[in-house]
Design brief:
alpha+beta; nine-stranded mixed β-sheet; 2 domains; 417 residues
Amino acid sequence: MAKPVTGTAIADPGGRWDIDARHSASCSARRLLAEIRDLASEISSRAAEIEAGRRIPPDLVETLRSIGVFRMLVPRSHGGLELDLPAALEVIGTLARIEGSVGWTVAIGCGGSMFATLLPRGTYDEIYRNRPDVIIVGSSQPVGTAEPTADGWRVTGRWPFASGCQHADWMAGFCVMTDGGKPLPGEGQPQTRAFVLPARDWLIEDTWYVAGLKGTGSHHIVLTDTVVPGANFFDLVSGVPCLPGPLYQAARQVLPLFHGAVSVGMAEGAVDELVDFANTGRQQLRAAVPMRDSETFHGELGRVSAELRAAQAFLRVQAESHWRHALAGRLKDESLLTQGTQTATWLAATCARVADSCFALGGGSALYETSPLQRRLRDLHAAAQHALAQQRNYATAGKLLLGGSIAEHHRNADPAH
């Protein structure tokens, strides 16, 4: 029976992250943020175009690619910037603050570049042979099947929510591994593996007609009886990265914080836009004074700002904790996946409330499609529908706490303590 090839173990408890590496990453992050700020007005001016086209325009994708956003978590060994986690989240959040779908799409592309390190080294080198700015996207739902053949695995499936599929270079899907039509046994459930193929090998079905995050182009992607080499498969849960690097030891643990960074960035954008609206001197119907002179408005804006600051602080603390664990070689701890998911869930709900409040404070004018407040409302509620942000995720965190005292749990969760 054909078997998916697994990666080669390379131990790296963060030892490569020396002073030079830190300096290089810091300089790259500052340069990248400066270039994004220069692009801010162009990106925000195209928000309506992005929504109408239900994708990021190709020329804008290429601009983002050219400044390096899609290589910021690619290893330096392959021409990437290999930023530290807090810096990468700042870049993602900055883009989401400008336009939600852009931030989301970049977050997906960065996640793809991290998951790719779980491939065998030869496959990884082939993907990045010509340039570091390769865009890898996909769907994490295990809705495909893979049957063994002499040349690999015969894959069939139809995967939803493939954000950024229209501008991807490679795409990934998850399969239940089968033999004779019967699922192969895994650890308490059928064996599941992920795989990658060049984007040209996939069919994209135009299905992304949705309420929010319209510009992410998260269509269905399809394969039918397609033979995929075993060397193109990887195990997301127990796979071993083919390259060293603090973040690559457990990409799965980091992904929820990407989601959190997008949520916080979009909420920041909603508050920015509400403040800009109030500063136009707008006076709502039957109001005694303009919004910016209203004590009621001041109080509500102050409350909303407090919620946003709490979200910003939570994301920052969790990102720094994850990064310390990564440098110490402990990122693979399953409790960090639980913590990260708990963080993403709370951030999504909190940031959606921020958008709700901004929309309500905007009054009747916020109803129009020309108002960015209605778009922020829709985008943040769409983000909160993601599996990483569902309220049921709190149950896992609760079970973790019941395994020991709360004080012991928090003491063990952060190596700084």
